[in-house]
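Bug report (template v2)

What were you trying to do?
Predict the complex of my protein with glycyl-adenosine-5'-phosphate.

What happened?
Run completed; filing so the output is reviewed.

Input:
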Amino acid sequence: MPASTMDQLVSLCKRRGFVFPSSEIYGGLQGVYDYGPLGVELKNNIIASWWRTNVYQRDDMEGLDAAILMNRLVWKYSGHEETFIDPLVDCRVCKSRWRADQIAGRCPNCGATDLTEPRPFNLMFKTQVGPVADPESFAYLRPETAQGIFVNFANVLATTSRKLPFGIAQVGKGFRNEINPRNFLFRVREFDMLEIEYFVYPGTEDEWHQRWLEDRLCWWESIGIPRDRIHVYDVPREDLAHYSKRTFDLMYAYPDLGPQEIEGIASRTDYDLGSHSRDQESLELTARVNPNRDSTARLTYFDQATGRHIVPFVVEPSAGVGRCFLAVLAETYDEQMVKAPPPERLTAVADALAAFLKSVGRNEKIGPQARDALLERGQAIAAGLPEALPQVETLLGMPGADQIELGKKLRGQAQPLIDEYFRTVLHLRPHLAPIKAAVFPLKRNHAGLVALAKEIAATLRAPGRMRVVYDDTGAIGKLYRRQDEIGTPFCLTVDFQSLEDRTVTVRDRDSMAQERVPVDELHGYLVERVAS
Ligand code: GAP
């Protein structure tokens, strides 16, 4: 079963080193996160999978890596200076700030309706370029990578001799000064983007729009988000961005948040190339663009069939890596009861939980929001025992839980049961898993077992094709659980038989089935199973 709450994911990410709040030791920075040792692997694997599918496996795509800092005129003619704006309101009672379109006239912090009139707020970050801080010496941190592609259109065309239709793919950071960053990785101020600008003959854009929708749904499926978990939202005309003729938003139902956009696939007409082009009046543009007196290039394509210069139309699939990361975690997260815990021990946990919740209800140091959240979660766990028992870990990690002395008792009752009777598993597709294989000696104080296990790990690592770890810091059952929780698809155990016949047991994460594989065949065995 996929994750049912965002807290399960936040807790896993913190506990196991997937994601940390940025600058945590100084109190953090709102809306900014760091990817830890496992997070960077998962993130890189998502990006690599996207690049493989969209660049290497197609014959109509090129790659690009444009700079984050660009001439300010890019953002003038793209329309961002004028339109990349959210309506900002202040609560006059508690002084908090909100996006007017997200709060329905009531302050989510204190409930007051005494709000200022909405005023426009441009989401682009500014930075100074060069040593002199005059009003002209600034640049924006790009809010999307797309414009780097449009302004390089002529360069790519000239250096690759591409014919329409073709596309340019780019992965890179985008920055948005969101008024209310929230919901963990879902809405942040700095994030990685996966963007494609696909250039087509005018008149063929509707067909390509549909084809890209299909292709993108296939990719999502290939990383473990099935089609029936994605809702395709055909954005109503009145809600379309200024550049879009039609947009499909792919919506994924995140825990706690409900259906939210993970990717937008927009049909952008000739707006972008037309906006950045000189001689616009001669281009017969269909899109309404701001007159451009600064561009030095005609962003056109010479169509040999007709002998005319045309402005290609654009189809743009654009996704954020963080939202993808979060959807993959949510979708593959699973808490499984391996065997039923003894009833008397379960009763002891239920009693400890009830006492903890009673204490939460009486505690005056915890704020009302945190108290309600703890009570709601705790009651849901109590009603869902025994299956919900692993969620006690999440409960005890929630804000305010550390104020409750009885939390220690609850942990003392629950943790041994969780360790013994449950496992948390990330059913990640093997090509996304941060660690592909973990190697254990059956006994850590047996020199022969340890030496062979270390030798196997080193041999598997040597070609540099996958991350393989050695671990002997616990009993085998515990080591399996640790790897299950981070999605490692294969655990290799070196036992006494290994010393005789040079085979090891390979345990499959999902089925927990084991088979013996000769040491010399391990590399091929794993490569075959962890390839995309
Ligand atoms: N070039 C088109 C474009 O930028 P967008 O819908 O504004 O379109 C594309 O952004 C994707 O970037 C979204 O579908 C979402 O996955 C991601 N995204 C946008 N804003 C985000 C934010 N503040 N935090 C995390 N991801 C974000």
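What did the reviewer find?
The longest helix spans residues 37-56. The radius of gyration is 27 Å.
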